[in-house]
């Protein structure tokens, strides 16, 4: 069962990744990317990394993709009509059925199940918040502090790009 | 560990089916008599002017950017909040430094007026759209 | 680490059923309370005292025509209303309704709650985008910006609870409050959480989304029939869910005040009934609070909402967190 779930998630990840790259509509691409993030979270869960799986959804799908969607909506990149290429329920169901079929075919191939590595029993505890907290603030302290500086730099950088000073007479437009 | 996540997946399935059932019911029960005027976007009874896809204020983008940073801060806080009582003073200081650095970033943003949406206080032309 | 058994699924099923029902009750209660506050009758014709009004509303919505604006994205327009309903329903899996009465007890259930809540943003954003209407798009963007802004104080307030317990399991947080509710230990956090929860569920005074004077209906301007009904349902489910979360995180979950000091040992059945009724009464009170505030306080302006979120609540919640952490670390420990 684990093997099948892994193959399904792997095919889904690759499929949604391809869908994201090949799609010409930006919003559809972004939605495929969300699907991609969620299926990667599923793979983390399969590896018993519970904390990481939830963080993947919380940060990538919940925060970063929202920024992407905002940017797509704000920029309004190309002409309006092409933004609404037809997404139909049948294409979406075809995509999912294709993923299921492909993963079933892969699963039925002989020897695929043996290719997968065994999950170490230590992962049962290593994937929890407590274990992560124990190492993150001791062994990886420097990287942790660097994260703070990196994030601050990101905010300041975004601000510098987004803003420019108003001219003195106030009539620039 | 997996059994623990089983109710969540079951719930996801049930919620999805429930939502789909509502949609399907209204599709079957409701009438469908479209015409051009009915399908126009609502604009207070007038003919729509221009396209809805206009460029909107960059301030939305800045809010989302700021959100990512502090969302990550919150995420980093949780493992620390779980374990900090068992660890030394060094960890406490480390977290304080982390929060202070991000706090400086927040104060910088607030001073720059990025998150101030009051029209009369807009210091920057780009935000004035 | 409790195993998932058949009883977990029974709890899940009952919780789901109760959530859907209480959303309907919330719709009815909102209209009755509004009528009471405004000194009029309110719905009183359908069924005894108007109790069947929500069913009549749903039937009416089901029989309405479903209109998708031209040039809108039909598929996303149909998917968007499903998202808030699904995310609202997903929440009940980790909430304990009594001692041992929960569906599952995963390692980081607090993060699970936040993750599910953060996905709710897609509902409004995509709804606004797919409608191809100016009001919808602006309403969706505003709603999304507001929701992500208030997610931060919300997460911070919850973090200031987690430091007491030392566990990210909601079940542990609920069990910890047997003697002292977190409202008494961490009052500022509780107030921040309540304000942020109001903003998260887009309720007055933060209902900028449907500021009728400027945005008509906000992100659901172009929605009709049951698609609108689902946004409507999701709003009330979020009211119920947020009331449950307030109860669980700050107001002692299923415990009576200071129950650890005076409540005698009870048989499991009596304890279970007591727990569930205490939880229900508290949740009911917070649902009433939501409605009460809606019909009492006027709406903020958008700049005030953003200012409150970013330059008041967020620094305050960070300060609250670090002060509590320092007290726990240097004085208590």
UniProtKB/TrEMBL annotation, chain A:
TM region(s), chain numbering: 6-23, 30-47, 53-77, 89-109, 140-162
Compartments, record wording: Cell membrane
The keyword Cell membrane is assigned to this record: yes
Principal EC category: translocase
Catalytic activity: a quinone + NADH + 5 H(+)(in) = a quinol + NAD(+) + 4 H(+)(out)
Alphabetized UniProt keyword annotations: Cell membrane, Membrane, NAD, Quinone, Transmembrane, Transmembrane helix
One Pfam family linked to the record: Oxidored_q3
Family statement drawn from the similarity comment of this UniProt entry: Belongs to the complex I subunit 6 family.
Function: NDH-1 shuttles electrons from NADH, via FMN and iron-sulfur (Fe-S) centers, to quinones in the respiratory chain. Couples the redox reaction to proton translocation (for every two electrons transferred, four hydrogen ions are translocated across the cytoplasmic membrane), and thus conserves the redox energy in a proton gradient.
Protein name: NADH-quinone oxidoreductase subunit J
Organism for this UniProt entry: Rhodohalobacter sulfatireducens
From TrEMBL, chain B:
Reactions that this protein is recorded to catalyse: a quinone + NADH + 5 H(+)(in) = a quinol + NAD(+) + 4 H(+)(out)
Single GO MF descriptor: oxidoreductase activity
Subcellular location: Cell membrane; Membrane
EC number: 7.1.1.-
Domain of life: Bacteria
Membrane topology: Multi-pass membrane protein
Membrane-spanning ranges: 6-30, 58-80, 92-110
Keywords for the protein's UniProt record, in alphabetical order: Cell membrane, Membrane, NAD, Oxidoreductase, Quinone, Translocase, Transmembrane, Transmembrane helix, Transport, Ubiquinone
Function: NDH-1 shuttles electrons from NADH, via FMN and iron-sulfur (Fe-S) centers, to quinones in the respiratory chain. The immediate electron acceptor for the enzyme in this species is believed to be ubiquinone. Couples the redox reaction to proton translocation (for every two electrons transferred, four hydrogen ions are translocated across the cytoplasmic membrane), and thus conserves the redox energy in a proton gradient.
Annotated PANTHER family: NADH-QUINONE OXIDOREDUCTASE SUBUNIT A, NADH-UBIQUINONE OXIDOREDUCTASE CHAIN 3
Assembly and interaction partners: NDH-1 is composed of 14 different subunits. Subunits NuoA, H, J, K, L, M, N constitute the membrane sector of the complex.
Family: Belongs to the complex I subunit 3 family.
Protein name stated in the entry: NADH-quinone oxidoreductase subunit A
Organism annotation: Rhodohalobacter sulfatireducens
Gene for this chain: ndhC
TrEMBL record, chain C:
Main location: membrane
Family: Belongs to the complex I subunit 1 family.
Record-listed E.C. numbers: 7.1.1.-
Keyword Hydrolase appears in the UniProt entry: no
InterPro entries in the cross-refs: NADH_UbQ_OxRdtase_su1/FPO, NADH_UbQ_OxRdtase_su1_CS
Pfam families: NADHdh
Subcellular location: Cell membrane; Membrane
Signal peptide positions (record): none
Domain of life according to the entry: Bacteria
Database matches in NCBIfam families: PRK06076.1-2 (NF004741)
GO terms assigned for molecular function: oxidoreductase activity
Keywords, comma-separated and alphabetical: Cell membrane, Membrane, NAD, Oxidoreductase, Quinone, Translocase, Transmembrane, Transmembrane helix, Ubiquinone
Membrane topology: Multi-pass membrane protein
Reactions catalysed, as given in the entry: a quinone + NADH + 5 H(+)(in) = a quinol + NAD(+) + 4 H(+)(out)
Protein name per Swiss-Prot or TrEMBL: NADH-quinone oxidoreductase subunit H
Free-text function comment from the UniProt entry: NDH-1 shuttles electrons from NADH, via FMN and iron-sulfur (Fe-S) centers, to quinones in the respiratory chain. The immediate electron acceptor for the enzyme in this species is believed to be ubiquinone. Couples the redox reaction to proton translocation (for every two electrons transferred, four hydrogen ions are translocated across the cytoplasmic membrane), and thus conserves the redox energy in a proton gradient. This subunit may bind ubiquinone.
PANTHER family, A to Z: NADH DEHYDROGENASE SUBUNIT 1, NADH-UBIQUINONE OXIDOREDUCTASE CHAIN 1
Assembly behavior: NDH-1 is composed of 14 different subunits. Subunits NuoA, H, J, K, L, M, N constitute the membrane sector of the complex.
UniProt keyword Coiled coil, yes or no: no
Species the sequence originates in: Rhodohalobacter sulfatireducens
Transmembrane segments: 6-29, 75-98, 110-129, 150-168, 180-199, 236-256, 276-293, 313-332
């Amino acid at each position: 069962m684990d093997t099948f779930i892994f193959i399904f998630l792997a095919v889904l990840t690759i499929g949604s990744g391809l869908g994201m790259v090949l799609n010409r509509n930006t919003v559809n691409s972004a939605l495929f990317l969300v699907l991609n993030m969620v299926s990667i979270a599923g793979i983390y869960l399969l590896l018993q990394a519970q904390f990481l799986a939830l963080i993947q959804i919380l940060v990538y799908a919940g925060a970063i993709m929202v920024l992407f969607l905002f940017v797509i909506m704000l920029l309004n990149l190309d002409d309006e009509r092409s933004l609404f290429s037809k997404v139909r329920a049948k294409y979406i169901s075809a995509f999912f059925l294709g993923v299921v079929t492909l993963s079933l075919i892969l699963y039925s191939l002989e020897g695929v199940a043996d290719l997968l590595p065994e999950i170490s029993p230590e992962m049962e505890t290593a994937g929890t918040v407590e274990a992560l907290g124990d190492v993150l603030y001791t062994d990886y302290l420097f990287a942790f502090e660097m994260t703070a500086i990196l994030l601050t730099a990101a905010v300041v950088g975004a601000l510098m790009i987004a803003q420019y000073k108003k001219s003195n007479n106030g009539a620039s437009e | 560990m997996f059994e623990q996540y089983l109710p969540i997946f079951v719930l996801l399935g049930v919620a999805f089916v429930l939502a789909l059932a509502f949609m399907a019911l209204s599709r079957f029960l409701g009438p469908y008599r479209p015409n051009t005027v009915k399908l126009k976007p609502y604009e207070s009874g007038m003919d729509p002017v221009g396209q809805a896809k206009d460029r909107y204020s960059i301030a939305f983008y800045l809010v989302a950017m700021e959100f990512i940073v502090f969302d990550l801060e919150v995420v980093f806080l949780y493992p620390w909040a779980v374990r900090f009582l068992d660890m030394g003073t060094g960890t406490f200081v480390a977290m304080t430094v982390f929060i202070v650095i991000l706090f400086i970033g927040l104060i910088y943003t607030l001073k720059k007026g990025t998150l101030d949406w009051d029209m009369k206080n807009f210091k920057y032309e780009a935000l004035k759209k | 680490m409790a195993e998932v058994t058949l009883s977990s699924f029974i709890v899940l099923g009952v919780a789901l059923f109760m959530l859907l029902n209480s959303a309907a009750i919330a719709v009815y209660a909102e209209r009755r309370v509004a009528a009471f506050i405004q000194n009029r009758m309110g719905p009183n014709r359908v069924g005894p005292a108007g109790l069947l009004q929500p069913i009549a509303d749903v039937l009416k919505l089901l029989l309405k025509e479903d209109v998708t604006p031209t040039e809108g994205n039909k598929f996303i327009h149909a998917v968007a209303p499903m998202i808030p309903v699904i995310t609202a329903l997903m929440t009940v899996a980790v909430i304990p309704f009594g001692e041992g009465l929960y569906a599952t007890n995963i390692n980081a259930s607090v993060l699970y709650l936040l993750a599910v809540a953060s996905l709710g943003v897609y509902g409004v954003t995509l709804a606004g985008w797919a409608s191809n209407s100016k009001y919808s798009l602006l309403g969706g963007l505003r709603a999304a910006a507001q929701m992500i802004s208030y997610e931060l104080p919300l997460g911070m307030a919850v973090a200031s609870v987690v430091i007491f317990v030392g566990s990210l399991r909601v079940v542990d947080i609920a069990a910890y409050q047997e003697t002292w509710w977190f409202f008494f230990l961490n009052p500022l956090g509780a107030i921040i959480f309540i304000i942020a929860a109001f903003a998260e569920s887009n309720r007055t005074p933060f209902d900028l989304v449907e500021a009728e004077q400027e945005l008509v209906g906000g992100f659901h301007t172009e929605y009709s029939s049951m698609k609108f009904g689902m946004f409507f349902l999701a709003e009330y489910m979020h009211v119920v869910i947020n009331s449950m979360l307030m109860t669980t995180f700050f107001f002692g979950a299923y415990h009576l005040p200071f129950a650890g000091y005076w409540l005698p040992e009870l048989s499991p059945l009596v304890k279970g009934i007591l727990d569930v009724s205490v939880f229900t009464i508290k949740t009911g009170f917070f649902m009433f609070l939501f409605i009460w505030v809606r019909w009492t306080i006027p709406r903020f302006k958008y700049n005030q909402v953003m200012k409150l979120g970013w330059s008041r609540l967020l620094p305050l919640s960070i300060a609250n967190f670090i002060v509590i952490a320092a007290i726990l670390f240097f004085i208590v420990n």
